[in-house]
Amino acid sequence: MKAEDLKLIVKEKYSEIANQSKTQNQSSCCGSTSCCGEGTYTIFSDDYSNLEGYNPDADLGLGCGVPTEFAQIRQGDTVLDLGSGAGNDCFVARALAGETGKIIGLDMTDAMVEKARKNADKLGFTNVEFRLGDIENMPVESNSVDVVISNCVLNLVPDKRKAFHEIHRVLKPGAHLSVSDVVIRGELPKNLQEAAEMYAGCVSGAIQIDDYLNIMKEEGLVNSIVQKEKTIQIPDEILLEYISNEELEVLKKSGVGIFSITVYAEKN
User: Fold this and answer.
1) How far is residue 202's CA from residue 79's CA, in Å, rounded to a whole number?
2) How far, in Å, CA of 145 to CA of 135, rounded?
3) What are the backbone dihedrals phi and psi of residue 105, each rounded to the nearest 5 degrees, phi first?
């Protein structure tokens, strides 16, 4: 499938999700009105409720980690959140960067940007802004950001090399990133790899962990450390939407795994 077609699928799915609450997303098992197997949307999510800056209206349960946990955000930092959704990680980042910090959320889905802006307005935040844009071509000035964060989004970008190139461009010299993302070890069944629904649900868009880290390094993001890793368990009934019982049994015995990782790296 062409990159633009994949982006369109992601936009459509996350536009649906933007207009639902976290409770609706979780009760429908998939963050979509049809619930036809996209249960991966909320399977990955972590609990944010005890974090300073947490706002329930901004939490749609779409992350696969807590990137701010390892982001080393300091007072006064400029923080860029890629795929900012309804603003969940941005508001947590603001609590760390303080009144003197600047938080920029970037999302390619109009409905998400609109929802995030409304949430920021309700909270009265003047140092948090949300921009509509593509991670492969960010509307962000070069060498302007202290910390880049992202939560379960870069796996949705068709050209990951271009994404990491853009991250390197916008970071200040010596600045760093902390991203939570989905990666794989081993080879997924072909039907899973090709399923557009599973792409939007973050699975078939994931790449091998070694490839992920190598692309970062090749794009000038060095000293990478996997700060946290957890196995993603996708229920059989969801996988069986795309593969046969026989393929499922082979997958379980193969050692192939889907993982959430949180990675730290610095601009070279």
Assistant:
1) 24
2) 14
3) -105, 130
Residue 40 has pLDDT above 60, yes or no: no
CA 124 to chain centre: 25
Which CATH number characterizes residue 213's domain? 3.40.50.150
pTM for this prediction: 0.87
Tokens of 110: 């109009």
Is the distance from CB of 259 to CB of 231 less than 8 angstroms?
Answer: yes
C-alpha distances (whole Å) from 250 to each of 19, 27, 206 are: 38, 30, 20
Domain count, the chain: 1
89: helix, coil or strand?
helix
Domain coverage including residue 121: 3-267
Of 225, 228, 229, nearest to 266 (Cα)? 225
Q: Report helix, strand or coil for 32.
A: coil
Q: Are 10 and 205 in contact (CB under 8 A)?
A: no
**Which residue, among 37, 10, 13, 30, has the nearest Cα to 239 in the 3D structure?**
37
Taking CA atoms, 227 is separated from 92, 265, 267, in Å, by: 19, 10, 17
Could you tell me where the beta strands, DSSP code E, fall in 110-241? 128-132, 145-151, 171-185, 207-208, 221-231
Structure tokens at 65: 């980690």
Q: Dihedral, CA atoms, 50, 91, 32, 43, nearest 10 degrees?
A: -40
CB hemisphere CA count around 166 (13 angstroms): 20
202 three-state secondary structure: coil
Q: What is the pLDDT of residues 142-195, one digit of tens each?
A: 999 999 999 989 988 999 999 999 999 999 999 999 999 989 888 888 887 777
Encoded tokens for 38: 């996209």
Structure tokens at 141: 């000035």
